[in-house]
Amino acid sequence: MTRRDIINDPMIGNKAEAYEAFDDIPTNPNLERTIGDVINARYGRRNVLQGMLGVTATTTLFGTSALIAPSQAQAAAQDSRYAFDELTWGNDENHHVADGYDAQVLLRWGDPITADAPEFDVMNQTAAAQLKQFGYNNDYVGFVPLNDDGSRGLLCVNHEYTNEEVMFPGLGRQDNVEFSGMTPELIDIEMAAHGGSVVEIAKDASGAWQVVRDGKMNRRITPLDTAMILDGPAAGHKRLQTNDDPTGTKVIGTLNNCAGGMTPWGTWLMAEENFHGYYWTNNLDADGKPVIDPASSEAASQKRYGVPGMWYAWGQQYDRFNIDKEPHAPNKFGWVVEVDPMDSTSTPIKHTALGRFRHEGAETTVSSDGRLVVYMGDDNRFDYQYKYVSGGKVSDDRAANSNLLSDGTLYVARFDEDGTVAWLPLIHGEGPLTVENGFNDQGDVMIDTRIAADLLGATPMDRPEDAQPRGDGTAYIMLTNNTKRGEDDLNPANPRAKSSFGHIIEIKEDGGNHAATAGTWSILVKCGDPSLTEVGAQWNPETSENGWFGSPDNCAIDADGRLWVSTDQGGSWNKTGKSDGLYAVETEGDARGTSKLFYRCPVGGEMCGPYFTEDGETLFVAVQHPGTDGTKNFAGFERDSTFEDPATRWPDFDPAMPPRPAVVVITKQGGGKIAV
Fold first, then answer.
1. Which of 296, 315, 415, 577 has a 20 to 30 Å separation from 263 between CA atoms?
2. What is Dmax (Cα atoms) for the chain?
3. Among 284-293, 433-442, 591-600, which is the least confidently predicted range?
4. What is the band of 71 on the pLDDT scale with cuts at 50, 70, 90?
C-alpha cells in the first residue's frame, strides 16, 4: 500500500491504526535469514507442517507438563506461583481487575501536576496549560521511592503520542485531510502533550495513593520546550549539527517515548521509538510518498529508518521537523534519554552510546561482575534485539554512574539454530564496520545502528518490543507480531503466515552473567488461540480460555522474579475478541507456559506499564488511547470513535468528557503483596 492508500483506507479509523499500517512496511533489506528461519532450522520444518513438536522442543516450550496426562498437568498447574482467581476475558467500556484487588485511576490526561497548573478544561485547551498538566497516551511507568517504607515516591511516565480525533472537539482525524485543521495552537498543544511527566505521589491515611500536586520535583518534559544535551560517541558529530545547533550537542525535546526503564541509581530512561513519523517534507510523488533525494548524504539512512513519516504537521510550523530545511534533524532522535527525577532543574541527556533505532524499552540490570546492562528492542518488523554493557561498574556514586551510559559497548543479537545466541559488538573498525562501508567513526555506527547491524548479520526479528532481564541471567523478549511473514517461513515459533499474535523468547546468558557475549535461547510461548489449529499457538495445556493472549508488548519482573506481560493488539483485537490486558505468565517448572489474566482494559485501549514497587504491594499500569483502536468491531458501537462520539468515556464516564489515557494503581484489598 502507498501512503495515500493507507491514510484514505476507510477501514483505518484513527491515526494509531494508520501507524500500524505504515509499520507493516519493513525497512530492513536484509531478510535472508529471519528468526523464523533460525527456529525452523533448530526445531525442524517437518514438525511444523505436522502440527507437532518433538520431545526436546516441547519440553523447551513448556517443561514436563506438556508431556504428561491432563490430570497430572492439572496438579502441576495448581502449583502456580500466582495466587489470584483469574479474571474472565471480554471487551467492554470499563476496566476490570481480578477479584480481591482494587484498581484506582490515579492520573488522567490533563490532570494538574504542579501547584500553579490550571484545572483541565477540555473545551479550552492551551499549550501553556498542557505544559503543567499530565500528558497524553501514557506508556512506560516507573517509580522512585522517597522514603524508607516506600509510601512516598516519584512516578515517571512516558507520553508516547496523541490522537487528535478524540483529543480535540470538532476536529476529526487529520492525517487523511492533509492536516487542514491543525492550527499552530493545536500543534503546540500536541507537542506539549508528548514527552513525559514526573509526579510525586503518596499514600493517604487510608493507604490509598494520591497525587501530591505541589511536589517540588513535579515536572513536564516535552518536545516543545525541554532543552537536552547529547553525549557519547555521536555527540558533536557533523551529522548532528543543525542550523539551531552548530555544535551537534544540543536538542529540544524528546518524542514518541514508548517503553523505558529505571537505572539502579534511580534515574529514568525514556526510549524514543517511532521518531521517523514526526518528520516532514514538501517533496512528494503522485501517490503522496515522500521523495528522498538520492544525492543527499542522508538518503540511505533516511530510507532505512523510514524518514520522513509525516504523521504530524509539526514540520509545517517548525523547521527542526522538516528534512528539506534540516536534513540532520532526525539524527537527533531515536536515542535513549536519561532524566534525573530527583532534580527538577536537571537537563536530560540523550546517550548516543546506546544506539539509534526505534527504541522499545531500556530495561536495566547489573551483571554478576557489577556492570550495567540495558536490553532494548527495535520495534519494527524484521529488525533487531540489542543490549548495552557498560565499561565500568555500578557504584554508590550516583553522579559517576551516569557516565556508565556513555562509555560501553552496544551489541546486537544473532539467534543461531543450535539454540545459542551470540551478541555481536557494534564497534567501528571491527568486521564490516569500516570506512569502506560508510562508517567513518563510532559516531556513524551509532547514528546508523540499523545499517551496522545489517552488516553484522544480526537476526531480523518479529518486531521486538519490551525486553525484561531477571537477576539470574535470564531475559524475556516480547515479539509482538509480524504480518509480513511469508508462507516459506513457517516454523514452531512462528508457524503462521502474516502472524498477528507474536511469541516470547527466553534468553539464558552464559554463566548467569547479563554481560556475557553468548547464551542460549528457547521459546516460552507462541501466542494466540490454542483451540484453533490454524493459529498454531502453543501454551501449557492448562492455560484456560481466559489466559491465552495475542501480541505481547510491555513486561515486568516482580520482586519474586515472576513475569507479567501486557498486550497491544492495535486495531486487530477482533482477531482474539479480547481486550488488551495484563497477564501473569509462568516461566518455571511444570507450570511453565501457563498464563492467567489479571487486568483488562476498556475497549480500544492498549495495556502499558506495568511496574511494581519494591515491596510488591503496588502495581502501576497505564491505559493508553482508550476508545480508539478497532472500535468498528465493538458490538453495539461499530464505528470509529471521535471526540463527540467515543466507544467509551473511560475513566470519567462524563458525557462532556472524551476518553482519557490514565495511570491506574492496583493494590490488594486488605493489603499485602500482589498475587501472593
1. 415
2. 70
3. 284-293
4. very low
The neighbour count for residue 533, using CB atoms within 10 Å, is 9
**For residue 341, is the peptide bond before it cis, meaning its omega torsion is within 30 degrees of 0?**
no
Q: Are 240 and 233 in contact (CB under 8 A)?
A: no
Distance of CA 533 to the CA centre of its chain: 30
How many residues would you count in the chain?
A: 676
- Say what the alpha-carbon torsion angle 254, 189, 144, 105 is, to the nearest 10 degrees: -140
Sequence letter at residue 5: D
Cell numbers at 17, concatenated: 491504526
The residues, ordered by sequence, that sit 6+ positions from 408 with a Cβ below 8 Å of its Cβ are: 353, 371, 372, 388, 389, 390, 391
The DSSP bridge pattern shows strands 152-159 and 138-145 to be antiparallel
Rg (CA), the chain: 23
Dihedral of CA atoms 611, 613, 616, 621 in degrees, nearest 10, equals -30
Give CA–CA dist 431/441, Å, rounded. 14
Q: Judge whether 662 and 138 are in contact, CB under 8 Å.
A: yes
- Which residues is 143 bridged to in the sheet? 155
56, amino acid identity: T
Predicted confidence (pLDDT) per residue in 352-367, tens digit: 999 999 999 999 999 9
> For residues 583 and 575, what is the distance between their CA atoms, to the nearest angstrom?
18
Counting Cα atoms < 13 Å in the Cβ hemisphere of 208 gives 10
For residue 308, whether the previous peptide bond is cis, meaning omega lies within 30 degrees of 0, is yes
Predicted local confidence at residue 59, as pLDDT: 44
Q: What DSSP designation does 403 have?
A: G
Indicate whether 49 pLDDT > 50: no
Neighbours of 558 (CB within 10 A): 22
The grid coordinates listed for 207 are 493507604
Residue 525, C-beta contacts closer than 8 angstroms, at least 6 positions apart? 61, 503, 504, 537, 538, 539, 540, 585, 593, 595
Instruction: Report the half-sphere exposure of 73 (CA within 13 A, side-chain side).
Output: 18
Q: What is the pLDDT of residues 302-341, one digit of tens each?
A: 999 999 999 999 999 999 999 999 999 999 999 999 999 9
Bridge partners (DSSP) of residue 364 are 374
Quote the distance between the C-alpha of residue 535 and its chain's center. 25
Return the residue matching grid coordinates 531475559.
475
Q: Cell numbers at residue 389, please? A: 554493557
Distance from C-alpha of 641 to C-alpha of 244, rounded to nearest angstrom: 39
> Could you give the CA distance from residue 347 to residue 158 in angstroms, rounded to a whole number?
17
φ, ψ (nearest 5 deg) of residue 638: 55, 45
Cell numbers representing residue 79 in the block? 502449583
pLDDT tier at 18, thresholds 50, 70, 90: confident
SS3 443: helix
Q: Is 13 left (phi over 0), alpha (psi -120 to 50) or beta?
A: alpha
pLDDT for position 558: 96
The residue ranges of every structural domain in the chain are 3-108+137-197+218-668
Task: Enter the C-alpha cell of residue 168.
Answer: 480535540
108 within 8 A of 661, measured Cβ to Cβ: yes
Residue 236, CB-side half-sphere exposure with 13 Å CA sphere? 4
